[in-house]
Amino acid sequence: MKFLESFFDRNRPQKSNTFFYLYEVVQNFFFSSKVATTGKTHIRDRVDVQRVMVVVWLATFPAMFWGMYNMGYFGLDYLDKGGFSTTGDWHNSLIQLVGTDPSNHLHRFWFGMVYFVPIYLTVFITGITCEAIFSTIRRHEINEGAFVSTVLFSLSCPPDIPLWQAASGIAFGIVVGKELFGGTGKNFLNPALTGRAFIYFAYPTELSGDMVWVAGLADNGSIDGYSGATALGIAALEGMNGINSNFTWGQTFFGQIPGSIGETSTFLILLAGAYMVYTKIASWRIIFGTLAGMIVMSSALNLIGSDTNPMFAIPWYWHLTIGSFAFGLVYMATEPVSAANTNMGRWIYGISIGVIVVLIRVINPAFPEGMMLAILFANLLAPAIDFTITSLNTSRRMERYNS
Question: Which ranges form a coiled coil (predicted)?
């Protein structure tokens, strides 16, 4: 390692060099920066952007690993019940290297890895390339936020998404959602959600959120008696009767359901959220505000009821565990750049997300998943919320000063 460190130091380009920041990000991947603030006049803090992003990145691991295992559980179960010997796509040759025994834990995890890792690598390479191009042109640092955006985008995708769609989505999210506004810290939209919204509206029939998301399913056709539909999709069509006939609440809470790669286990996601709150990376006000808004809105609709729309009857604790509510709550809504930054503003921001997501899920029967749009809409409101709160606080201080 000493040789490698010396190599970087000897070949370090001047800051005026076009590729200085590209070189620096590669060096920082192996070694921490030697530049440190010293002196009594400076405020020093262990928490910097790099450490914040590393914490968020590590916090995605439980949902990521469970998502791969869960994907293999449903995928191999589907192949076994259908009597299929192949997935019918290019993944099959890699899957066969380990095996397709539906009761083997290693086979389940390997199956999920074969589908997820190519998605993540494609998204990671595309996203970092876009970031590097803009950093080189604008001559600013390559921020670690791109690492988090790529993993969150990957985890929000269905397991059977074509790789070219994943690449186009993250490119749109990084370029349009962040870089066109000046880069990290200047964007008002969550880049991962912006990319996810782009591919949803570009390819709505494939990414609606209520289709059958089981790897290999589309290639082999349907199986009588096998339901791979997401719990949220079933709820939109059949309400509580449909959900109860397919899943228990415990299954949806712990993650034994089909769905996007990272959204299935509410339990692991909430554990990650607790860790992020403990490390002061995520705002507990946003989390509890979102939960409060969702609980109040869903409970109100439960009381109103509907004879034609079964989603009115879904209680709040089911809204918590089905779809991407928990995933968006912990990883997306708490993103500090695009969220509100005043304490009261965070409560309003979170409550807005909770109310809007339930309204979209329940009132709009064509789009049962509403977390993505709810957070993006709240992103647009966040600057106005903070401006209003700070203006009111300033006015109160001026009144006290003048009195």
Answer: none
**Does any domain span residue 194?**
yes
Q: In this structure, is residue 91 part of a structural domain?
A: yes
Mean pLDDT of 146-167: 90
Ramachandran class of 283: left when φ > 0, alpha when ψ lies in -120 to 50, beta otherwise = beta
Structure tokens at 29: 């991947």
pLDDT beyond 50 at 399? yes
Q: For residue 250, what are its two tokens?
A: 């415990």
pLDDT at residue number 203: 80
What sign results for the dihedral spanned by CA atoms 365, 244, 74, 157?
positive
User: Which pLDDT belongs to residue 233?
Assistant: 80
CA-nearest of 246, 164, 237 to 206 is 164
Distance between CA atoms of residues 123 and 131, nearest Å? 12
The length of the chain is 403
Average pLDDT, the chain: 83
Residue 103 CA to residue 94 CA, distance in Å, equals: 19
The C-alpha atoms of residue 76 and residue 104 are separated, in whole angstroms, by: 10
Whole-model pTM: value is 0.84
**How many domains are contained in the chain?**
1
- Residue 369: HSE in the Cβ half-sphere, 13 Å Cα cutoff: 27
Q: Which two tokens stand for residue 42?
A: 């400076």
Query: Would you place residue 342 in the very low, low, confident or very high pLDDT band (cuts 50, 70, 90)?
Result: very high
CA-to-CA dists, residue 45 to 42, 140, 199, 280, angstroms? 10, 22, 39, 13
Q: What is the pLDDT of residue 209?
A: 44
Segments of 25-85 assigned E as strands? none
Q: Is 163 exposed, middle or buried (0-12, 13-18, 19+ CB in 10 A)?
A: middle
Whether the per-residue pLDDT at 326 is higher than 90: the answer is yes
Looking at the domain assignment, is residue 1 inside a domain? Answer: no
Neighbours of 376 (CB within 10 A): 20
Is 145 a domain residue? Answer: yes
By residue range, what is the domain housing residue 322? 55-389
- Residues 8 and 27: their CA atoms lie apart, in Å, by 7
